[in-house]
Amino acid sequence: MQPDNPYASTRGSITSKQLPAFDEALIQKYNRSGPRYTSYPTALEFTPIPVDLETKILKNREARAPLSLYFHIPFCRHLCYYCACNKIITKKNSDSGDYLEYLIAEIKLKRRLLTTEDGKNPVVKQLHLGGGTPTFLRDEEMVQLWQFLQTQFEFLSDDEGDYSIEIDPRELSGNTLKVLRDLGFNRISLGVQDLDESVQIAVNRVHSAELIENVLTEARELGFHSINIDLIYGLPHQTPETLEQTVRRIIEMAPDRLSVFNYAHLPERFKAQRQIKEADLPSPAAKLTMLGNTINTLTEAGYQYIGIDHFAKPDDELAVAQREGKLHRNFQGYTIMGDCDLLGFGVSSISQIANANSRYILQNDTDLQAYQATIDAAQHNLAVMPAVKVIKTSIKDRLREYVIMNLLCHDYIDFKDVNQKFGIDAITYFIDEIAQLGAMQEDRLIDMDAAGIRVLPKGRLLGRNVAMVFDEYLDKKHKNRFSKVI
Known about the structure:
4-stranded antiparallel β-sheet; Arc Repressor Mutant, subunit A; 18 helices; alpha/beta; pyruvate-formate lyase- activating enzyme; single chain; 10-stranded mixed β-sheet; 21 strands
């Protein structure tokens, strides 16, 4: 029988059919540069925002839509050489206090424009602090920010909301985790990257396995619902053997989720990476071995492959949502909160707002001083708003986004579902794309028939390649802006 949701899995909680199949020859064949699709269109389609448009977008958003809030904290105390982010390295905490004032000012700017049906504060179902290192904020500053948010928004109970923060385990004070949990944070993500000392020294991020384990133990004792650990493969001095040891040690710590990222060495674009010697990097063949070993080790340990570098225990909310056909993807990555408008705060932060038949993607200035100057100007001129770039998505964009995101979240696109939602005949509309997928079908990456397109186990690691076929904006110029899929 056809399930109510065509994207709900009928394959059980976790079976061999769900596991990605590692095929080195196919990965080599299809390993091309492409976007991660945290939005469609991607951020490369941003254009300068007209005056007053952000004000109109926020005023006209769907009043019933709940919110997901994102706060970008751009500061770190240590420079990690693999870093490809826009971070500011500083030893002083005074910068965080100044920055917090700007965040609060921006919250006020946006909150005054938001309306709700009942006149109460807008409901926040999800909140995330990223960076940089969000715990660069002192404990008392985190309390100040959270308490101010309580006056502007309505938060769900601890068991219903998804309130998370990224953590550098080296920079926690003795009381930070307790402060975060008491405030209402219920999920944390730790940047570990690798446990091998020679690798840690090479990338300037040194910490012990015992430190990580102690943080996880304390977080569980405090009642955090979910713990994520980030790892990176392809770092200097890494070998398949040393990374295997790291992965097995992390499995012993039993995080709820893991993100296993591919290191892209682009020193011409990212200054920090110039500290890494290219001769110290593993070969492409060694990287593929690392990836294959990691996938096999994690899936054998019972982790469900979600997609695009992410794994989760079968009972984790992401894994459950994927099996139920309710998983979504946005600028915060995979999420269960697909019904939320995303409001970003801080330098370079991105918002996604829907109103009427349109959806808008907005971005604040990526330069800290320019961002602060904009917030200062807004205090004296109500026409000034933080966003400097915008994308307005068309109904055609929304159609292609729907196809791409379902392929990446659920490994499937149902033609009947697409036809009903968008009033088209999907097979006719996407006839050129279907023709392009012929080689992938021959290689058993996908299976196509009159019902739809399903990504097969051999294609799960190459899901982005399948999605790229439906991307109208992905020309040669744009492809050079992305890292390789694997």
